[in-house]
């Protein structure tokens, strides 16, 4: 146990009634309001997902106040491209790290709203509003925090069709009613809007007796959805099929907690879901990315299976064509009819024929890259047996085979954000 955690967190066997939404919410509030003081108090690495960050995001993050950053408990990078001018909502915004980072990317004309239910987290977030406004040079604050439940955004005053983008970092798993969260997110998104979020997923449904463990739930483990249930819920509430961006392993480095969990595996995964009117459907096409998204001038990584190099002609299936043509990305692509001789560029490593959203399969492929072999499950991995796996921009496997970086802990020069020190320190040994 961490030296800083309160006594309350030491009872690793404390249980709660997961059928009682109130009890779950109170337990989570206590965990994030009273038990955890900083990220060092966490017992698993579920809420500290490291992530290779593009430079413009690292630069923005470096301006966020230290106190906000030390209370960051996210599990992924929830900052999609092309945010200028957007209105963004952060579900479970915590101390506000992602909100203050995104505030710089949306610019003075954009806005960020963070919603959280825990007073202690909101207090830290609100404390630095003026500090960040001044630092960013904005005449008016473009970040606001509201207190409320992500299952009931209406009660917090959030109206239909309001936001261009919703982000969320390691929060949905903590909710006792995930369906309500996704349904509310769908409601408040504008048509063409996107939910881009990182969360923890299980390799199979988590049994009730494991869910009942308060610490495991608070640590973002036992409330995790079986990944395939996300596909079902997303469809039921009206979203497009989730597109997997990236995934990484989660380890429970505590024997007692591991024994409760048994053989269930957990990953942190980032998905993008779009709200597209049901009657909108485009045919398969050829698309050319025009290089117009800020910080993606050379290419744009859409998800684990689709990476567009600027100017390349790429075959796009009907699902992806519908997304690209109906969202904020529409102006960044030129489209032309498909031909028999089109130069389709196969994505690396993941099969391209279907939208494969299984994060465990992704990890299998990713691991096969890191062990130095060829990426096994479809796709080619670069010419001459070199193993560059472009998915999510985060899995650069060094040539030579055995000095590969793990799924999201690339130690490339300057690639490490504040949370990746341990990864950077081991850089000298070849990689993470
Ligand atoms: C793991 S932390 C992540 C915080 C933040 N996204 C970050 O990356 O630092 C979970 C946060 O979600 C909030 N939260 C959990 N369940 C919630 C709910 N049902 N409604 C509103 N906030 C919730 C907690 O209060 C906590 O601040």
UniProtKB/TrEMBL annotation:
Domain of life: Eukaryota
Family membership: Belongs to the methyltransferase superfamily. Arsenite methyltransferase family.
Reactions this protein catalyses: arsenic triglutathione + 3 [thioredoxin]-dithiol + 3 S-adenosyl-L-methionine = trimethylarsine + 3 [thioredoxin]-disulfide + 3 glutathione + 3 S-adenosyl-L-homocysteine + 3 H(+); arsenic triglutathione + [thioredoxin]-dithiol + S-adenosyl-L-methionine + 2 H2O = methylarsonous acid + [thioredoxin]-disulfide + 3 glutathione + S-adenosyl-L-homocysteine + H(+); arsenic triglutathione + 2 [thioredoxin]-dithiol + 2 S-adenosyl-L-methionine + H2O = dimethylarsinous acid + 2 [thioredoxin]-disulfide + 3 glutathione + 2 S-adenosyl-L-homocysteine + 2 H(+)
Start and end residues of each stretch annotated as Disordered: 398-432
Protein name: Arsenite methyltransferase
Source species taxonomy: Eukaryota, Metazoa, Hemichordata, Enteropneusta, Harrimaniidae
Domain Methyltransferase: 84-238
Keyword Chloroplast: no
Pfam family, one: Methyltransf_31
SUPFAM superfamilies: S-adenosyl-L-methionine-dependent methyltransferases
Gene: LOC100374082
Composition skew (Low complexity), residue ranges: 398-407
Keywords, ordered alphabetically: S-adenosyl-L-methionine, Transferase
Enzyme Commission number, as recorded: 2.1.1.137
């Amino acid at each position: 146990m961490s030296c800083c955690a309160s006594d309350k967190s030491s009872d690793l066997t404390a249980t709660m009634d997961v059928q009682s939404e109130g009890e779950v919410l109170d337990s989570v509030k206590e965990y994030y309001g009273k038990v955890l003081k900083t990220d060092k108090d966490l017992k698993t690495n579920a809420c500290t997902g490291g992530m290779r960050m593009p430079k413009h995001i690292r630069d923005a993050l470096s301006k966020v106040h230290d106190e906000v950053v030390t209370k960051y408990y996210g599990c992924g990078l929830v900052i999609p491209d092309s945010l200028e001018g957007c209105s963004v909502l952060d579900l479970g915004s915590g101390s506000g790290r992602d909100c203050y980072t995104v505030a710089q990317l949306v610019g003075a004309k954009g806005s960020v709203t963070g919603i959280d239910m825990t007073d202690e987290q909101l207090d830290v977030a609100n404390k630095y509003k003026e500090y960040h406004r001044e630092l960013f040079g904005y005449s008016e604050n473009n970040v606001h925090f509201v207190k409320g439940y992500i299952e009931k955004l209406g009660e917090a005053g959030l109206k239909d069709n309001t936001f261009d983008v919703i982000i969320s970092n390691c929060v949905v798993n903590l909710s006792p009613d995930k369906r309500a969260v996704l349904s509310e997110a769908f409601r408040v998104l504008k048509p063409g809007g996107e939910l881009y979020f990182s969360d923890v997923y299980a390799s199979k449904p988590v049994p009730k007796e494991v869910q009942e463990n308060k610490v495991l739930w608070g640590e973002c483990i036992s409330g995790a959805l079986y990944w395939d249930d996300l596909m079902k819920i997303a469809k039921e509430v009206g979203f497009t099929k989730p597109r997997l961006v990236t995934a990484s392993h989660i380890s429970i480095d505590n024997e007692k907690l591991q024994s409760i969990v048994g053989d269930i595996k957990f990953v942190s995964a980032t998905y993008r879901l779009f709200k597209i009117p049901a009657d909108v459907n485009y045919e398969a096409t050829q698309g050319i990315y025009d290089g117009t998204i800020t910080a993606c001038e050379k290419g744009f990584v859409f998800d684990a299976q689709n990476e567009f190099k600027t100017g390349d002609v790429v075959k796009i299936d009907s699902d992806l064509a519908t997304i690209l043509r109906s969202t904020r990305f529409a102006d960044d692509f030129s489209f032309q009819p498909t031909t028999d001789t089109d130069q389709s560029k196969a994505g690396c490593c993941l099969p391209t024929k279907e939208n494969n959203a299984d994060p465990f399969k992704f990890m299998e492929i990713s691991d096969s890259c890191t062990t130095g072999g060829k990426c096994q499950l479809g796709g080619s991995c670069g010419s001459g047996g070199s193993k560059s796996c472009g998915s999510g921009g985060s899995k650069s496997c060094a040539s030579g085979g055995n000095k590969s970086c793990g799924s999201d802990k690339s130690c490339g020069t300057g690639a490490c954000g504040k949370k990746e020190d341990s990864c950077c320190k081991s850089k000298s040994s070849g990689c993470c």
